[in-house]
Every structure is written in structure tokens, then in C-alpha cells.
Amino acid sequence: MGKPSPDAAELQAQGLECIRGDRLLFCDLSFDLAAGELLAVEGANGAGKTSLLRILAGLSLPSEGSVVWRGHAIARRRAEYCAEMIYLGHQGGLKMDLSPLENLRLWLTLAGLEANDDAITHALATVGLDGYQDAPTRILSAGQRQRTALSRLLLSAAPLWILDEPFTALDTRGLTLVRQLLDRHADRGGLAVLTSHQPIEVSGPLRSLVLA
Amino acid sequence: MGKPSPDAAELQAQGLECIRGDRLLFCDLSFDLAAGELLAVEGANGAGKTSLLRILAGLSLPSEGSVVWRGHAIARRRAEYCAEMIYLGHQGGLKMDLSPLENLRLWLTLAGLEANDDAITHALATVGLDGYQDAPTRILSAGQRQRTALSRLLLSAAPLWILDEPFTALDTRGLTLVRQLLDRHADRGGLAVLTSHQPIEVSGPLRSLVLA
Amino acid sequence: MDSLVAAFLALLRRDLMLAFRHRGELANPLIFFLMIVTLYPLGVSPDVNLLRQIAPGVIWIAALLAALFSLENLFRTDFDDGSLEQLLLSPQPLPILVIAKVLAHWLVSGLPMVLLAPLLGLLLSMPATAVKVLVASLAIGTPLLSLIGAVGVALTVGLRRGGLLLTLLILPLYIPVLIFATSAVSAAAAGLPVAGQLYLLAALLALGVTLAPFAVAAALRISLS
Amino acid sequence: MDSLVAAFLALLRRDLMLAFRHRGELANPLIFFLMIVTLYPLGVSPDVNLLRQIAPGVIWIAALLAALFSLENLFRTDFDDGSLEQLLLSPQPLPILVIAKVLAHWLVSGLPMVLLAPLLGLLLSMPATAVKVLVASLAIGTPLLSLIGAVGVALTVGLRRGGLLLTLLILPLYIPVLIFATSAVSAAAAGLPVAGQLYLLAALLALGVTLAPFAVAAALRISLS
Amino acid sequence: MWTFLHKFASPKHFYRIAGKMIPWLAALTVLFMVAGLYFGLFVAPPDYQQGESYRIMFIHVPSAWMSLFVYVFMAVAAAIHLIWNIKLADVMASSSAVLGASFTFLALATGSLWGKPMWGAWWVWDARLTSELILLFLYLGYIALVAAIDDKRAAGRAGGVLILVGVVNIPIIHYSVEWWNTLHQGPTVTKFDKPSIHLSMLLPLLLMAAAFQFYFFTLVLMRARTEVLERERRSAWVEELLG
Ligand code: HEM
Ligand SMILES: Nc1ncnc2c1ncn2[C@@H]1O[C@H](COP(=O)(O)OP(=O)(O)OP(=O)(O)O)[C@@H](O)[C@H]1O
Ligand SMILES: Nc1ncnc2c1ncn2[C@@H]1O[C@H](COP(=O)(O)OP(=O)(O)OP(=O)(O)O)[C@@H](O)[C@H]1O
Ligand SMILES: [Mg+2]
Ligand SMILES: [Mg+2]
Predict the structure, then answer these.
(1) Which one of C9, C119, C157, D216 has the largest count of C-beta atoms within 10 Å of its C-beta?
(2) Which range marks the domain in which residue D166 is found?
(3) Are the CB atoms for B124 and B148 separated by under 8 Å?
(4) In B, which residues are within 8 Å of A198 by CB distance?
């Protein structure tokens, strides 16, 4: 892990500890992430990657330590943090009975952004869902659902992305697309924390954190 | 696709057609698979791989054509076919409130096999779930659940495997494990139809079927 | 044959185990009935005579609702986690497996009601003869509720938010059971013979046990395709 | 502020849309309610005097059970597909979003009952003055049922098979509502003043609207952690 | 005072201090119980209406009071836990639940024993009786919820929310007798301005009430101590303690 450089660091993990049941998954885990940096969380199945990402997103509480965003503990400034962060978990958070368009419209409004149908349709086309924007999500294939969830990344300007296995179920063109998205995000000074069991080939530097 | 060789072919798809909603996913799809052959079904997201596999497993009906196993249409001899086939879908079919051991025990009994606790524990250890056999499946990570589902392959002698994205959520050691399983299965004269967006590296020959 | 028996028992055992895994769950049906019955003195009137009069109907309606409430668990959870798929892929005859699941459902939701009925009858001050008939009618009627319910659930399991649709399908089928059963109990309270109604219920049950499993199996295959 | 209003409306709209997407769903709570009420003449007794006497209680208990039945949909589906997670990650204040969801639930499950009550009162031969009070009590009481129910669902949403547990948690909290409401209706039928009970209900509603959303928000965060 | 509280709230000190308090509390329980029983059974005169059967009051009333008190105690503890995130408060709340449920059950059982000679029935659907039954359900709901959640921390907080929401029922139970004219006794003791009960009956009643209080605190501390050990089993001091 890189040295702490508190001035530049936007996202800081400070002494995180996570206990699930009787098992200590990790303890005293600290890192800093500055603008433009991507962090790959690695580890075998069951190492605690998902648990860490949920803590970073503020969904669960660490048993010790805290997550700091731009100098403030996220528990204190939840609203501001949520406005600047996108979390994509194992589940897409899509309503099966609504169309991708309707799903994204709601998500944008909840995120405090303006829901512009043209922009959404465009984003869906970019991820390869041309013609599916009005179909119920239920009929989409596994990969198509994942693409719908990923199209959020195109629609928001949030500087922090937290992505749990974003490559699941994607075909090769889907993989390339997400890699490009990550590259562009880093170029613009965005931050990302992600996990993946497939190699993450991005053009910029990729830091990695290994959970044992 | 290989030439039809009806004598040796154990599994035959005869003029399958699948229509979902308004879309024709594939039509007039035929292939034969002989003992010891592995078939990779390829295609972009939404091409119809899952739909095909569910038809092969007898879970849904094709709009045209039929699936033939050892000379008999599977719809006619469901029980015999089910006894010789394992299907692993996107969902593992695991009860979250039961332990892996209990889950597998039930599955074996339902499959008409003898449920031997030692054998199950051994299989679970082989897929890397040592020590988890009595924990509720709910607490397992995504990869650990997938491993539990895959351990069925070790416990049954069914000659036909139908696997929908068996590599999902697995780490590199998990991948290797499944590849070895596939190799051994082919060596013993088993058949497998599988999908995957990751390269399937097996030592024997791998036929492939591309859905457009 | 042996392996069929083994599969039947294993499935039954699993469903019971799932129901009782959480330590508290075992007591829940008991408390559920007690609570529903408690609503009446509170909402309607604590008057003993009135309570005695409405008691059979109230207890039977509670049994009906309890069955309805717990039906969702019969196949819905299995559907969601894909284990229903695996059940359909078992080489064993599906109707038999269905019977195992329905039996488990009845043991968890119906049987406690049968066992608890005397206590509830007492709380609502029913006469002793009527209580006996009440227990008999519940013993014959509640398995029927589970069987009919299973058909409904099997038909709606593939649909999201099938809860209310399910009610719509099932309640009309429950009503004959309710009518025969409560009329038997009222007849007993009035000192009239009750064998007729109970035989009818038993005939319905025989019909249900033989036909419902096939209907459920067919409905499941359709729902999953 | 504007974006909060937009989020509130969007969430409300989505939940209503989901409820009405399946064409049949709109009519369902209504039919459920009607059916439960028809069970009584069948299961209890068709005697008009008796029915009139038990009518307020029966209608209210039906309202209560209908609320209980439909509650599962309030957060459970959102939990299963991960959209609850996304709701919690919205920068908007969670209690406000919770109000939108509860409002949608009430519009689908509670409001139809309020509108239907006069008809049911008629069916069970209630006097006209009592019907008016019944409607008023339902109008004040059913939102309360949705609010209280939301707390229970939020607490149990992370647990598999929460159905019976949910009942155990919620029914005790529903009982005060039931008591005040039915005593108001009975008082009206007896020609007594009812303002007291209705004010009390209204006070409970005010309390519920201000406090429950916070409790729900807290419970959701706990359930998902 | 504040520092003392903070010190007390740390599991380690709680374990030690509670260990010292328990024998004293147990002794007080026995003392008050013996005195209460003596005055109640031998000194207090028979009632001019009810004869001897009224003596069940010395169990019934204190346990009924305790059933309410324990709930309020749990609610306060839950509030402290949720607001200041003091874990010990949660330990207190969850250790009290079973005791509260037992007191409620005891009040119900003794009440219906008393009801048989008084009203001629074990059970009537009267407002106070019913609301006491509801209180039992509230306790059971809390216990079931906490048992159903695997993660102890989440279970404690979820239970806390439930307890706080349920507090609304407490005044309803207490005032139910005044709101509805029912069979059950109106407030006799708690009307302080003009107690409508004779001193010779009041004294044993108060003694028994005190005994029940001490009994509750003794048990709660004992349960809390085991609970603390269980929760802190990974910490250094527990490992040291258990060798
Ligand atoms: C199952 C039956 C009964 C239950 C559940 C029950 C419940 C209660 C409760 C909850 C209280 C505490 C009220 C408060 O402090 O707010 C109480 C107090 C009391 N009960 Fe009962 N009771 C029952 C039967 C009886 C009977 C049969 C009698 C005798 C006629 C009786 C006499 C009293 C008295 C004298 C008090 C003290 C009232 C006061 O000063 O606050 N109870 N009971
Ligand atoms: N309640 C619990 N009790 C005990 N262990 C638990 C509990 N919950 C989770 N775990 C364990 O915590 C570990 C971490 O799970 P997590 O989902 O974070 O892993 P992961 O790194 O994301 O794995 P994967 O690559 O498979 O997705 C797993 O080994 C799991 O078994
Ligand atoms: N009811 C329906 N109406 C219209 N189209 C449907 C319906 N059901 C499925 N489809 C479409 O059928 C296609 C095939 O889906 P399937 O799940 O078989 O794809 P897949 O090849 O497994 O994709 P993936 O790689 O993403 O898993 C998808 O494009 C989906 O949108
Ligand atoms: Mg994971
Ligand atoms: Mg697929």
C-alpha cells in the first residue's frame, strides 16, 4: 500500500476491522486513495472483499475504525458522501417489472440528479441495450441486467465508484466497455475501488490491496 | 459443428427453435454430442445461451424440435434423463438457512443417490470449503456459494453436465479446480454443455457452438 | 422404491428443519392463533354469549388465514433460490415430492391449530361437545387447506408479488371447506348430528389427496418453463 | 429542496406504477377485503342482528389483516432485488423517502378500504350513523396501520421467512388502533359521542407520522448492515 | 459522576462492579421477601369482602407492576444504546426481556387465579387483562426478533427500535382501567393523595414490591454478566479472566 499522504487523499480507510460471526476478516486496515487512483481489492473467495466494499459505501459499520471522505468521517456526512459516490453491489438494484429506462429515471432522481430521458436512452445505447429501454427488465439476460446497472456510471458525475465484481456476466465487448469507462474516470480525476476475479486491464496505474 | 454421427451420439439437439416474446433467439439448431465431448455454448450477452441450456435440461420446452438422450426424446423419459444429468443454473438452488452439508444431503437423496456424510464432507473440502460444512449457507460469500453448488459435480456419477456460467464469482484457484473437474469428466467419457464468458481452458478437445 | 421413500422423508425433514431452525419459530403458529383470536374480544365485544356464538367461525377463519399466510413459504422461497428447479429435475415422481412438501406445510401450520383448538374453544367459552367436533373438523379440514393452497401457489409462483392474486385464487376454493366445517360445529353446539358434514369433508379430503398433487406438479412445470 | 420533492414524487410514482403494472393488482386489496368480510356470514351466522353487532369489529379486523398481508411487499421485494440498498445510498433524507413508500402502500391497500367501507357496512346492516364513524375511523386508522407495519417490516426485512415473526411484532402494536376505532363505531351505533376516540386516533396518527419514518429509517439501516 | 458512569459502562468494570453488587442485592431480596411474606400472610387481617383469597395480591400486584417497570427500563436502556451507542445498555435491555416476560406471565397467572373466586371465571376479556396479554406479546416479539438475527450488534439495535415503538402501549395498559369501565380493580395504591387501602395491607404490599425490584436487579446483573463475557470473549481481559 502507498504511504499516507493525507493532503491529497480523498478517501481514507482508517484502521478498519471487520468481524463476521466469529471470524475476523481483516483488522487495522488502512489506505488512502487520491484523485485519479483506482484500487483493486483482491483476495480469494471469502476473503472479505464484499464486506470491505459495503463498509466503504457506508452500508455496514466496521467494528473498529472509520472511513473518511475529504476529511470527514462518512457516518457524519452521509448525504454529502452519498451524493458523490456510486455503489454497485452483487445485486443490480433493478426492479424486474420496470423497464431499464424507468429504473434509471428513478435512480437518477433519487441521486438528486435530473432525469433526462434522452440522456438515459443514450447511455443505454452505449452499453449495448439499444431497443431494450422499454422492455421489462425481467426478460433481460444476466449480462444485459448487469449492463443496465453499469449504465449508471455513464449518467452520474460522482467522483467515487465502488464496484463489486462489475465484470460478472459480461461478454468480451462488455468487458472492454467497462475498462474504457474506468480509464476515462481515472483520467478525469475520479476514484474507484473495485473487486474482480478477472484481470482488470486499465491503461492508467492500478493500485491493489490484497486481503488474506 | 461436427457431422451428425447418430450411432455414437448420446445427446442430440434436433432442430431446436426458441422464441422469447417477439424475438427469435435461434432456430433449426441441431448438434450431436458423443461421450467424452465438451461443448461450449458461446455468444454475446442476450444471445440465448441460458435459454438453450434450460431447454436441454428439460426445464423449458422449445417452440420447435426436440432434445434426444440416448435415442429417446427427453420429454418421454424424464425420470431416466434426470437421473443421468446435472444442471447448474444461474442460481445455485441452495437453501440459505441450511448448511452446505444439509443442502447436499438433500440434493443427493432427491437425485436418488445415497447421502454419505463423509463423502459430502470430503467433496466440500475438495472445493475449498473445509470448515464451512456446518455453517448456514447465508453467511457464505458469493464464491463460496458457487463452490458449494459445484461440489455436486464431485458427488454424482451423472454422465451429462449442463452448466450455466460455472466460473462466476470463482477466484483463480476455483477456476483451476473446475477446469480439472471438466478434464476428468471428459476423460471418463462424460458429456458437458457449458457457457462461460471467460476462456475455458481444458486439456482435451472443446467443441463450440456460437449463438449469434 | 427405497430411494423414493428416502427422497420423500428427506424432503419432509428438510422443510420441517427449515421451519424450526430459528429457535423461536416453533412457538410462532401458536402465538399467531392466540393473537388472531384475541382480536375478536377486543374488536367485537367481550360478551361471553356473543363470543360463544361466533367462536367456531372465528377459529376456522383464523385457521384459514394462517394457512393462507404461510402458503407463500411453500414454494416461493424454493423458487427464489432455485431449489424448486432442482426439485423438478429430480428423477423421483414429482407428485410424491409435492405431497412431502404439503405434509410439511400442514405439520407446521395446520397441526398446531388442531392441537390448540381446545384451548381456544375454552377461551371463547364454547361448550365441550362443540369443541370435540371443532377439533375433528380441523383435523380433516386443515390438510385440505394445505392441498388446495399448494395448487394456488404452484400456479402463481413464477409471478412477482403473487400474494394477493393467490388469495383471489384460493379463497373461493376454501369457502366450501369453511361452510361444511363451521356448520358441523354449530350443529354440534345445537345438539344436532354432525356425521353428514364430517363425511363430506372427509370425501373432499380424499379427493384432494389423490388429485391435488398431480395438479400441483403440472402447475409447477408450467410456472418454471 | 426541489430535488427532494422530485425524489419523493418519483418514488411514490414508481411504487404506484409497480402496483398497477399487473392489470389485476389494482382490484386485489379490495377483493381481498370483500372476501374476508363475506367469510363471516358464511362462517359465523347469517343472522342480521348478530352481524350488525359484530360488523364494526369484523370490518376492522379485516382491514388489519389486509394491511398485514400486503405489508410484505413494502420493503421485501426492494430488499431482494437490491433496490433497497440503493435507496439507503440516496443523498436524500431517508425518513422522507420512507414516507413516500408508506404513502404508496396506503394508497393501494388502505384507501380502497375507506372507500369500500360504506358498502360493507350496508352489507352487514350497520346503521347509517355508525357507517359514517366507521369511514372516519378507517380514514384515520389505516394510515396508522401502514406506518406501524412499515416499522415491523423494516425490522424483519433482512430475515428469511419473516411472515409469522412480522405478525408477532406488529399485531400488538395494531391492537390499540383496533380498540379505539371499534369502540368509536360501537359508541356511534349506541348513539354515544365519539369525538374522544377519534381524537385519540388522530393523536396517534400524528405521533405515527412524525416518529415512525425515523424508526423505519433506523430499522432499515440496521437490517441492511 | 460522569466519569464513574463511563467507567461503569466499560464491560470490564461492569463485570467487576456487578460481581460485587450481586450478593448485596440478593441479600436485600431475601430480607424484603421474608418480611413481606410475614406481614402479608400472618399480620395483615383478612379482607371483609374477599376473606383470605385477596392475599394473592401480594404476588399479583408487584409482578404486574414489575411487568410494566421492566418494559420501561428496557426502553430507557434501548434509547441510551441507540443514541449514545453504549453497548452495555443493550446488554441490560436484552438481559431484561426474559425476566419481563416472566413477570408478565406471573401477573397473568396470579390474576386469573384470583379472578376465579372474584369474578367466577379464569379469564374475562377485560381491557386491563387483554392489554397485559398484549404486553406479553410485546416481550415475546422482542425475544423472537433478537433470536432471529444472527449478528448480535444488529439484533440489539433492531430490538431497541422495537422496544421504543412499543412504549406507546404502556400508558394504554396503565390507564385502560380508567378509560373503559371494566371489572378490574381501579388504581388503589397509586392514588397517593388518598390511598384507599388499609395500612396493614399496604405495608406488606410495598415490602413485596421492593423485594421484586431487588430480585429483578439481582437477576439482571447476573444475566448481564454472562452476556458481557459472551460478547467480549475475544477481548484480552476475558481471555485473561478465563485463563
Ligand atoms: C388475569 C387477570 C389479571 C391481570 C392480567 C391483571 C393485571 C394487572 C396489572 C397489569 C396491574 C398493574 C396496573 C398498573 O399499575 O398500572 C394490576 C394491578 C392490580 N390488580 Fe390485577 N390483574 C388481573 C386480575 C386481578 C384480580 C382478579 C384482582 C382482584 C380483584 C386484581 C387486583 C389488582 C389490584 C388491586 C391492583 C393494584 C392496582 C393499583 O393500585 O394500581 N387483579 N393488575
Ligand atoms: N455471519 C457470519 N458469520 C461467520 N462468517 C461470516 C458471516 N458472514 C460472512 N461471513 C464470512 O465472511 C467472509 C467474507 O465474505 P465476503 O462476501 O466479504 O467475501 P468476498 O471476499 O466478497 O468473497 P467472494 O470473492 O466469494 O465474493 C466469508 O468467508 C463468509 O463465510
Ligand atoms: N419474454 C421475453 N420477451 C422478449 N425477449 C425475451 C424474453 N425473455 C428473454 N428474452 C430475451 O432473450 C434473450 C436471451 O436471454 P438468455 O438469458 O438466454 O441470454 P444469454 O445468452 O444467457 O445471455 P447472458 O450472457 O447475458 O447470460 C435476451 O436478449 C432476452 O432479452
Ligand atoms: Mg464478494
Ligand atoms: Mg445467461
Answers:
(1) D216
(2) 2-223
(3) yes
(4) 198
